[in-house]
C-alpha cells in the first residue's frame, strides 16, 4: 500500500510538470516579438523626421517647389507608415501564435489536472471500500495504521488542491481565449489600415504627378491654381454660412406636420477610425491655403455616411469630378458638413433621421466628388455652431 501511494504521488508530480517544449517555443516567440517591436520603433523614429520636415516646409511661403517638397516628404513618410504597419501585422501574428500556444499549454494543464483528479478519486473510492477496522487488521502495527490514515487525509487534501488548480486553469484559459479574440480583431483592423495606407501612397504619388502636369513646372501657374483653390474653398464655406442662416429662419416657419428638431447629440458619421488630419492641424498638407476647419476620418472609398443626428439637408452639392459635399442642420444651432462625397442619397430640405445613410465617402484622387485638394480616401467632417466651425472631436462620443 505504501508503494502504491508513492507511485501515485510520483505520477501526479509528472503530470503537473510544465511542458518544456511549450516553454522553449514561447521564449523563442517572445524574443521575435521583442525584435519586431524594436524594428517598429526605429521605423517610427525615421517617419518622425519626415513629419518634422513637412511641418518646417508648411511654415514657409507657398510655392510649387515648397509644395513638391512637402509631397515628397509625405510620400516618404507614408512609405514608412506602410512598412511599420506591415511589421505591426507580423508582430500581431507572432503574438497571436504566442497566445494560441499558451491556450494549448493551459488546455494541456487542464487535461493533466483532470487525469490527476481521476486517479485521486479512484484512490479515495478504493479506501472508502475498506472500513477502518479492516485497514487496522491488515496492518502489522499501529504505526502502519496511522500512516495509512494520514495517506487518506493526504488524498483528500490533494483532491481539494487539484479541484482548485483545475478551476484556476479554466479561468486562465477563458481569459486567454478572450485575449486571442481581441488580438484577431486588432489584426483585422491593421490589415484594413495597411490597405488604406497603400491607397494613400498611390493618391499622394498621383497628386504630385498631377500637380506637375497642371502647373507645367511653372511657379506662375502654381500661383494661379493656388488662388483658384483658395477662392473655391472660401466660396463654399461662405455659401454654407449664408444658406444656414436662411434655413434656420425657414425652420421657425415649418408646418406642424414636419418634424421639429430636438436632438443634437452627435454620433460618428462613419465608423470611428484614425484621424488623418485634425481641426486646425499644423500638419495639414494644404495649410498654405486655409486652416483645416474639420477632421479627416480615414474611411474606405464608398463607405456609407450616416447622419450623426436628426436634421434637415441644408445643401447637397454634386460637382461631378469636382468637390462634392453635403451639409445638414441640427437642433441647438449645430450643423455638419461632409466633404469629398462620391455619391449623394439626399436632397435639399429633406428631413433625415439619425443614422440614415445620406451618401458615400470618397476622396480618392481622380474619382467623382473628390475635388483637387485630396491625396487619399477619407471623410472630411465639419461641425459648426451658429455657423462657426468648431472642433468635431468635442462633439463626438
Helix coverage percent = 55-70%
* Contiguous helical run count: 6
In whole angstroms, the N-to-C terminal distance is 69 Å
The poorly predicted ranges are 1-8
Structural class: alpha+beta
Order of helices and strands: HHHHHHEEEEEEEEEEE
Q: What's the alpha carbon Rg, rounded to whole Å?
A: 34 Å
Number of strands: 11
By oligomeric state, this entry counts as single chain
The proportion of strand residues reads: 5-15%
Total discrete domains: 2
Average pLDDT confidence is 84
What is the approximate shape?
A: flat
Largest sheet: 8 strands, antiparallel
Task: Give a short overview.
The chain has 397 residues and is α+β, with helices and mostly antiparallel strands. It is built from six helices and eleven strands.
Structure keywords:
397 residues, 12% strand, Glucose Permease (Domain IIA), 6 helices, alpha+beta, 3-stranded antiparallel β-sheet, 59% helix
Could you characterize the architecture of this molecule?
By secondary structure, this protein is of the alpha+beta class. The protein has 2 domains: 2-212; 218-394, Glucose Permease (Domain IIA) (Distorted Sandwich). 59% of the residues lie in helices and 12% in strands. It has helices spanning 2-16, 20-58, 64-129, 132-138, 142-215, 219-251; strands at 275-277, 295-298, 304-306, 311-317, 325-329, 334-339, 343-344, 351-352, 357-360, 378-385, 388-390. Strands 1, 2, 4, 5, 6, 8, 10 and 11 form an 8-stranded antiparallel β-sheet that branches. Strands 3-9-7 form a 3-stranded antiparallel β-sheet, with no helix packed on it. Strand 10 and strand 11 (388-390) form a beta hairpin. Helix 3 (64-129) runs antiparallel to helix 5. The chain is flat. The model is unreliable at 1-8 (pLDDT under 50).
